[in-house]
Amino acid sequence: MKLLFCILFAAFSFQAQAFSVTRRQALATAAATAVGTVLWQPQNAQAVNGLYTPAPQSLIGQTIVITGGTTGLGLESAKRLAIGGANIILTARTTTKGEKAVSEVQQYLRDNGIDNPMVSYKVLNLDDLSAVKKVPESWNDVKKIDVLMNNAGVMAIPDRQLTVDGYERQIQTNHLGHFVLTALLQPKLASDARIVNVSSQAYQFASKMRSDESLWEPQPNDYSPWVQYGQTKLANILFTEELQRRSEVAGKQWTVVSLHPGAVATGRFHVHFDRCYNHFIFSMGS
């Protein structure tokens, strides 16, 4: 079974390993996809090196929150959205990671001749719901959010891990933590806010959405890293559809979307590619 998922993973993500595409190019392309989903005014976008990027100063006055903004897709999206002059708020698991990410975004802006001091971070640990529940109080300085990009996530953790709340880590980080965060940030969301939930085509690894304890607290002998990851990505999609439906019933003008960013050569990708490659080689030799 593990070998099967490795083969599927390789087929699913081969494009990110193509020799003609560097890791930075793959990240930039995926970030452009995410940025295109975040922006709802195409006339304010332009092509930079063939990638979708907001025009300078086109997002002034907009506040964009990006969870998991310290690496990968979140960081690259922050760089491009900051070009538009938006107030960018990244979330980071630690102060050190947050400061480093802000520094990288500012360097990117300088390299592109852009001045935007409105880039900051908030420490957020989605694996601890008690910390998430403190957000309304600790984010008092954030008065309005125009875009909430729920991007943070973990992928196919090899061994079952439980959070301090007792839930399986993938489902809490990828879905439950964002569910609670979005609910708590509702009072701060603009009347025409856009909520972007980063999902994945890997939702297909889940044949159907579980609704029993096996989703939240799978037993060790019932835990499959990729099936569980697929469950979390399917949960992202279902959450998106239901939040959009409920917002319309409530008369809100929100736009709630989910997206598959493509196969991206992030740090998580390389960890799993190397693991699957080694497993495949050893399996062939046994």
Order of helices and strands: HHEEEHEHEHHEHEHHEH
Query: What is the approximate shape?
Result: globular
Strand order of the largest sheet: 5-4-3-6-7-8
Helix content: 40-55%
Label the structural class: alpha/beta
What does this protein look like?
Pfam families: adh_short. The chain is an alpha/beta fold. It has ten helices and eight strands. Helix 2 (23-38) packs across helix 3 (72-83), helix 3 packs across helix 4 and helix 7 (169-185) runs parallel beside helix 9 (225-249).
Summarize the structure.
The chain has 286 residues and is α/β, with parallel strands linked by helices.
Secondary-structure blueprint of this entry?
Elements: H1 2-13, H2 23-38, E1 45-48, E2 51-54, E3 63-66, H3 72-83, E4 87-92, H4 95-111, E5 119-123, H5 129-132, H6 135-138, E6 145-150, H7 169-185, E7 189-198, H8 213-216, H9 225-249, E8 255-259, H10 267-285
Parallel strand pairs: 3-4, 3-6, 4-5, 6-7, 7-8
Antiparallel strand pairs: 1-2
Family: Belongs to the short-chain dehydrogenases/reductases (SDR) family.
Signal peptide: 1-18
Keywords: Oxidoreductase, Signal
